[in-house]
Amino acid sequence: MVTTPTRVRFAPSPTGYLHVGGARTALYNWLFARKTGGAFILRIEDTDAQRSTEAHTRVILDGLAWLGLDWDEGPIFQGAHVERHRADAERLLVENKAYRCFCTREELEAQRQATPGGVDLYKYDRRCDRLPPEEIAARVAGGMPFVLRFRMPDAELAWEDAVHGRIGFHGRDLDDLVVLRSDGTPIYNLAVVSDDVAMRITHVIRGDDHISNTPKQIALYLALGAPLPVFAHVPVILDTDGKKLSKRRGAVAVGDYQDRGILPGAMRNFLALVGWSPGEDREIMSPAEMIELFTLEAIQKKPAIFDTAKLEWMNGQYLSRMSGASLAAPVARELEKMGVQVRGAHLLPPYIDAVKSRARTMLEIAERVAIRLDSRRAVLDDKGRKLIEKMGDGYARALVLATDTLRGLGEPEWRAEPILDALKQRVEQEGMKLGDLLQPIRVAITGTTVSEPVNELLEVVGRSSSLARLTAAAERNGASGC
RNA sequence: GGCCCCAUCGUCUAACGGUCAGGACACCACUCUUUCAAGGUGGUAAUACGGGUUCGAUUCCCGUUGGGGUCACCA
Fold this sequence. Notes:
Strand order of the largest sheet: 1-2-3
Largest sheet: 3 strands, parallel
Strand content: 5-15%
Number of helices: 20
Distance between the termini: 89 Å
Radius of gyration: 32 Å
Structural class: mainly alpha
Number of strands: 12
Mean pLDDT: 90
Helix content: 40-55%
C-alpha cells in the first residue's frame, strides 16, 4: 500500500502572544505529523501588515520551541508569497469565477444599512457582477479602484470533518467574498487556500472558529481545481466561567505560564489533555507516548474549560519526578530575576531538594530557596505571626532554649540527624513536646509555619545563619532578659 | 437575527445498545507525620429536558432548552 506522506501546518498570525488555544492546535498538528511520519510546517500569516510585528513572531517561535514543538519546514511568511496569491486571484477572474467590484466601503455600508428586513439579512447583491463589459472596461481604464470578488457557487459545500463528522453549508447562505483588496493585496481566505495548495497540505488541523471559513475555502479549492485536504476542527478553549479565554482574566499566553514557573513538559502534557483523551485513564505521558496514542478522531467535539488547578497539579507531578540538579539552572534564572545573589547554580540542588516536594511551580521553589539562602527573604507571614501571638512569651523562651541547645553542636555535627537528636534530648529534659520547640524554630528561620522537617531545614540553612536567625527572632520578641 | 457547531460529576474525561455510569483535578474524611505538603485509604458528585426507535438507551433519530462559533477591502 502506497501512502502519501502527510503534511500539516500551524499558521498563526503574529498579531499577539501565543494563546494557549493556539499552542494546543500546534501541539495536535505536531502530534499528528510525528505519529504519521509526516511534516509539520510553520507558517506565519502576516498579511495583515497593520497588526503583524516581528516581536510577535519571535514570541510565537519561542513559545513553540519552549513546548518542544519542532517544525520541519519554515517559518514560511505568507507575506512573501503575495505574487502567487495575486496570480491565483487573477486566474479566478480570467476563468470568470471572480468579478471586479467597484463598490466603495461607504457604498457597501450604505447598502448594508438599507437592507430590507434589517442589516442581519444583508448579503452583497452582485450589482457589480451585472455591469456591462464596456462599463467595466471604461472604469478600469479610468483608473477606478476595485476589489476582486469570488462568485460563491449556488451549491452544497460540505465535508467530512475528522473530528466532527459531516458538516454541510450551502453556497446560497454565503456572501461573494472579496479575495483581492483594492490595493491588490490578498485576503485571508484566498491566501490560506493558495498557500495550503502550494504547500501540498494534506490535513488542515485548526481551531473550531474556522468552521465557517471552511465552505468558502472549499469553494476556492474547487474553483482553483485543487484537491481538498482533510479538515479537522478542534474546539476552542474557554475560561473558568465558560467564556472565551480573555486577557483580562488570568493568563492566556503560554509565556504567562512559563513566567509562573510551569515546566514545558507539564504544559505540553496538560494541553494535550484539554480536548483529547487517549482512553485507558492515561494522564501523565511522555511525548513519545502521546504520539503513539494520538488520533484526530479522539479529539473532543465540545469546547473545554482551562483548569489551572489541574495544570498546577500536573506541574507538581513533573516537578516531583525531577532532580534538584536538573532544576538548578531554571531556578537560578528565577532567583536572578528576583534579585537574589547566587554563587553558582551548582550550589542550588540541596536547597531545591529541600523545598521541591512542597511546591507546585518553579516560582514557588525559587521563593523558598531564596528564604533559605538569604535571611532577609524570611519575612513573617500571617501563619507565622499567628503562631507567635498564640505562644506569647513561650515563643521567645522556646527560641532561647533552641539556640542554647544548638550552639552545642559544632560545624561538623551540623547535620539533620545530630540536630534532631540534640533537640529531642533537650525536649525530654524540659518535659516539653517536640512540636513546641520545632514550630517556633521553623517560624524564626523561615517566617512561616510550613517547611520541610525542621532538622533538615536547619541543616540546609547552615549553622551560622540558623543561629543568627534564631537569636535575632528571640531578641525581636523580647528575650533579651532571659 | 441568518448559517454552523456542541451538550456525562464543579472541571478534564472513559463508555463506541446491556457497566453498581469508570478515572483524574478540586473538595471532604481518615491514615502517615515534627508543621505543611507528598503518599495511602475512603467519600460527596454527572448522563440538560421531552418525545420516539429498541427486549433494552449516556450511546441511534426528532424536537425543546442551554452554551459556543461565525457573519469585514481582520486573520
